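Entry 12.
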Amino acid sequence: MTSINRKVITENILKLIDSNGIEDSDFANLIEKSTRTLSRIRKGQSLFNIDAINVASSFFDKSLIELNKQYIVIEADSRNKLKHIHKNNVAYSSLLEKRPSITYAITYHLLNNKEFCSTGMIVDKIKKLFDSLGWNYSSSYISSSMRRNSKYIAVAGTAIVDGNEVNVYKSK
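Predicted 3D structure (tokens):
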């Protein structure tokens, strides 16, 4: 039998949190830990304990064996699959009904948008795209997130909108 590797499990849980757009504060509440504890876990200064691992296993619908594998399989559209699985579990479904993290919105939706990848979009158009998904982010939050995600996103040029020069963002 394979031994349990809490470091691998912790890394996989963090990947699942990110790939499903769960805010750290929400996940910390779910596992009944402080956001400070989760921050230390993210920095590699601590690991998830067995109780938190069990909650994560249940929430992400992953067995301990799956979480213990070096390379975890994360399905496409896993957030919506989890919504369906947990539709009758108030604690889990309420967390999944919340607006996802902006990083999730950018990585899993904006970077897969044909228009964004080919011609680019201004912040107002990105905001409308996210609003159509039910995710209300402010324009300034989207704009600062575009700059923070410069690894994947570049300023492709500028456009004049209502007499103002605005950046056009595009995937790299």
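Annotation: The CA atoms of residues 54 and 64 lie 8 Å apart. The chain has a mean pLDDT of 94.
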